[in-house]
Write a structure and sequence with these properties.
The complex is a heterodimer. Chain A is mainly β. Chain A has no helices and eleven strands. The relative contact order of chain A is 0.33. The chains are: A mainly beta, B mainly beta.
Chain lengths: 112, 111
C-alpha cells in the first residue's frame, strides 16, 4: 500500500540528547514536510524539501535539522538546542508544491 | 490578524445533524483549499481538496469556497459519532508555497 510511514510512534529521550525521527514515503512524491503540533497551536512548519538534496527552513526551524538524500526519505533530528522538544511531530508529502499534502501517523516525542 | 482563523470549538451536535465548519482567511492569494480530519493522536487525513471558488461534494461532505468573502466551509450531512474529530482547514497560494493551517475545530457527535 502507498503511504507515509513515520517511526517510531512514541519516543522518549532524556534532556540534552539528540533524537532522529524517521519519515519514509512510497508515493513517489517530490515534496516532503515536517510539522510540529502542540495543543492549541495548530500545525507549525519546521522544514520542507522540494527535491532531493535541497531543503528550506519553515517557521520554527531552530533546534532542528533535516536531510534529503533520497526521494523517499526525510528524517528529522531534534537537537539538544531545541528548548521545548516534547510535541507531536507530523511528516507529510505532496506530488508537487501546489498539490494536496498527505500525512503520516505522527511521532509523539517526550523529553524527560 | 492571523492568516487563517478557525473556531476551536468544541462543536457538539446530535447524530444526524448537519454540521457546518468554517475558516476565514486574510491572504487573497490563496488558491488551493483543503479540509483535513484528525482523530486523537493520529495524523490528519485529507477529506476535501478544492481549487479557487465554488462547491465540491463527496458523499456526506461538501466543501464550499467563497473567495470574495475569504471564507471556506465544510458541511457534513447526516453526521455520525465516527465523525467526532478535529477538522483542520488548510490553504496555499498558486506556484510554490507551503500550506497555511487553521488551528482546527473539534467536533463531537453524540449518539
Amino acid at each position: 500500500d502507498g503511504g507515509i510511514t513515520q517511526s517510531p510512534k512514541y519516543l522518549f529521550r532524556k534532556e540534552g540528547q539528540n533524537v532522529t525521527l524517521s519519515c519514509e514515503q512510497n508515493l513517489n512524491h517530490d515534496a516532503m514536510y515536517w510539522y510540529r503540533q502542540d495543543p492549541g497551536q495548530g500545525l507549525r512548519l519546521i522544514y520542507y524539501s522540494q527535491i532531493v538534496n535541497d531543503f528550506q527552513k519553515g517557521d520554527i526551524a531552530e533546534g532542528y535539522s533535516v536531510s534529503r538524500e533520497k526521494k523517499e526519505s526525510f528524517p528529522l533530528t531534534v537537537t539538544s538546542a531545541q528548548k521545548n522538544p516534547t510535541a507531536f511531530y507530523l511528516c507529510a508529502s505532496s506530488f508537487r508544491e501546489h498539490t494536496e499534502a498527505f500525512f503520516g501517523q505522527g511521532t509523539r516525542l517526550t523529553v524527560v | 490578524q492571523k492568516e487563517v482563523e478557525q473556531d476551536p470549538g468544541p462543536l457538539s451536535v446530535p447524530e444526524g445533524a448537519i454540521v457546518s465548519l468554517n475558516c476565514t482567511y486574510s491572504n487573497s492569494a490563496f488558491q488551493y483549499f483543503m479540509w483535513y480530519r484528525q482523530y486523537s493522536r493520529k495524523g490528519p487525513e485529507l477529506l476535501m481538496y478544492t481549487y479557487s471558488s465554488g462547491n465540491k461534494e463527496d458523499g456526506r461532505f461538501t466543501a464550499q469556497v467563497d473567495k470574495s468573502s475569504k471564507y471556506i466551509s465544510l458541511f457534513i450531512r447526516d453526521s455520525q459519532p465516527s465523525d467526532s474529530a478535529t477538522y483542520l482547514c488548510a490553504m496555499r497560494n498558486s506556484g510554490y508555497s507551503t500550506l497555511t493551517f487553521g488551528k482546527g475545530t473539534m467536533l463531537l457527535v453524540s449518539p
